[in-house]
Amino acid sequence: MSKPDYVYVTYIETTAEKLWHALTSSEFTERFWFGYRATSDWKVGSPYHFAKDGSRAMQGEVLIADPPRKLAYSWDVVKEGVEREQISRVTFDIEPRGRIVKLTVTHDDLGPKTLRDISGGWPMVIASLKSFLETGRELPADLPTSGAKETSNV
Asked: Which residue pairs from 49-57 have beta carbons closer than 8 angstroms and sit at least 24 positions apart in sequence?
């Protein structure tokens, strides 16, 4: 039996290059990802991690790096106090469409807890990314959510 996939599609008024830079720049990820800072050289086989306040939350390996079209990495939740499941995979497909870019985020090889957590987390992160690229302002970090666990792993 195959594990479920999570797919999220949005359209952003930006360029593929700016979107790629936002996804791979530590300074930008920290702004739109609610304080989580991504660190890597973003080359295939390289490690990456997301950390907030000096504490790692996610880590893995860069699987695909094809700027500015496709980025994929393994996803291993290492946040203290969070139950770990198997390592999953996140893929960002970036498709220019004139003055906009179609972004498809696919998260697969999911366990049930990770699926639950990312189903609440990805929409918030991608909405913040979209707002950041289109207006220069990310979503506020103190947005109300239906539960703290929903965004704990994304």
From this structure: 55/79, 55/80, 57/82, 57/153
Alpha helices in 9-154 (DSSP H): 16-24, 26-32, 112-135
Reference 11, options 107, 138, 137, 96; nearest CA is 96
Rounded distance between C-alpha atoms, residue 98 and residue 82, angstroms: 41
Q: Is the pTM of this model over 0.70?
A: yes
In this predicted model, what pLDDT tens digit does every residue of 10-49 receive, in sequence order? 999 999 999 999 999 999 999 999 999 999 999 999 999 9
Residue from 70, 110, 114 nearest 89 by CA:
110
Per-residue pLDDT of 64-97, as tens digits, reads 999 999 999 999 999 888 888 899 999 999 999 9
Q: Are strands 88-97 and 100-108 parallel, antiparallel or unpaired?
A: antiparallel
Output phi, psi for 83, to 5 deg.
-65, 130
